[in-house]
Specification:
Structural class: alpha/beta
Strand order of the largest sheet: 2-3-1-4-5
Number of domains: 1
Radius of gyration: 15 Å
Number of helices: 6
Amino acid sequence: MLHLILGNTGAGKTTYAQKLKEENKAFIFSIDKWNHLLFFPDKKEEDGVDWVLERIERAEQMMMDTIQQLESLGIDSILDLGLSKIAHRDKWWHFAQDHGFKTQIHYLDIDKETRKRRVSQRNNEKGDSYEFEVNEEAFNFMESWFETPSTEELRKAIIIK
């Protein structure tokens, strides 16, 4: 099964993914960890969103290959990718459908003030889910970037409030 975790910055996706991993003996694909280790060390100040999106796209190609291998072994995969855009969610849903994988959407619908408080706490504590600092500008950017899932997308979703 392919678990797709949706939620805006600070919703608790990585923490939730860890819980799912333990419950399902699954493998987590966390884009924050991939970005932190593979891409951000090479990022220049002038590199913008397109630079990041290009690298995420390449990473996701590797993820898809690995997910196919895990599925053939009967191991669930968990996507901790944010999945902020409808088109991004559709890409993964179609990937799963094209390969006959079962899917489960998990939507962490957490209010903005709670998420903002969590991000601040994560920035200060630098605990298990910390990969890089999310400043107010980045938080606000992600607020405008995130597209709320439709009723249809959430029809069979697990919704966490």
